[in-house]
UniProtKB/TrEMBL annotation:
Organism lineage string: Archaea, Methanobacteriati, Methanobacteriota, Stenosarchaea group, Halobacteria
Pfam families for the chain: Oxidored_molyb
InterPro entries listed in its UniProt record: OxRdtase_Mopterin-bd_dom, OxRdtase_Mopterin-bd_sf
Keywords for this protein: Membrane, Transmembrane, Transmembrane helix
Protein name: Oxidoreductase molybdopterin-binding domain-containing protein
Amino acid sequence: MDVRRYAPSPRAVDWGLFASVAVLLTTGVATMFTGTPSTAWVVDLHAIAGVVLVCLLPVKLWRVRRRVAPDRLTGRRLFSLLLAVDAAAALATGVWWIFGGSLDLGPWGLFHLHVGLGLLVPPLLLAHLRYRFHSPSSVTRRGRRDAIRYAGLVTAGALVWRLQGQVNDALDTAGADRRYTGSREEGSDAGNRFPVTSWVADDPDPVDAGDWRLTVTGRVESERTYTLDDVPTGTSEDAVLDCTSGWYSGHEWRGVGVGALLDAADVDDAARWVQFRSVTGYRWSLPLEAARGALLATHVDGERLSHGHGFPLRLVAPGRRGFQWVKWVEEVRVTRRRELGEWLAIFVSGL
Ligand SMILES: Nc1nc2c(c(=O)[nH]1)N[C@H]1C(S)=C(S)[C@@H](COP(=O)(O)O)O[C@H]1N2
Ligand SMILES: [Mo]
């Protein structure tokens, strides 16, 4: 059997590669917001596009194999080779993760490596396309056949994705158990003994409980200030902290409901967003209704939060990925519009 018979036409392969990378980038970035089971399809789509790319990349590399012979290697081709190596490495690290692999790269791990390699593919691909671009004329000529092949490929990708769980079970791959987000469990129900993750460089000195105040400000009728002893801590909630770097941890969090804080301050009719601000400048907003359902926690599984986990107060935002769970909160600011600067702040607040 000659498997090349089943390959789409060369131009269709090129467009398929482009489409796969576009889907992988979009869904990869979108996993930042997959906090509830209803968004699991984003991760599924990411995996299926990955399988499609695993099938297409060898077809492409086989076709161009002679162009990268050492005596024909130009600077541009070297660059395209770099793209191929990076794409293959991004795929390999993704597959390795699925099968339970891990890597110790100091503060980073296998998942970070996958994200880094993956994010490098689109810029390399765009640069490659700048000088390798062909018109898609032959796609239309073989359009139907190619469409059928692609339908088959995507279906096969979905099947492979469905079956890999069974393969993992059969192989008994330790550590391959994942949540639908792709994250693996670490230190659930064990109080403060779960990973401390600060995005980029946030690493403040421990907060002095005596000096610390929580203020509720912005679009409210009466601003409020609380000392740590004043913060009512009678509300508990089970919620999963799921970091975008690939781990999750489920706990019982205790503290004050944000809804109660907002009611005490009497929110304006014009208010739409609630921003949670850390002593470090790190900050994130939730839509008013979502914020009402969130918790500002002082305790985890009955223990006082440790400094690393945000003592004295951290946001618990059920159904949202970990980067939104602001630590060391000192201000709850009610606003009409969302502050766009917070997108920058989550990356640079620690610098
Ligand atoms: N102020 C502040 N809050 C933060 C972060 C940070 O860097 N600074 N990191 C976020 C990220 S990316 C995650 S996953 C969680 C991690 O919480 P943990 O360190 O308690 O596990 O906190 C979030 N809250
Ligand atoms: Mo995170």
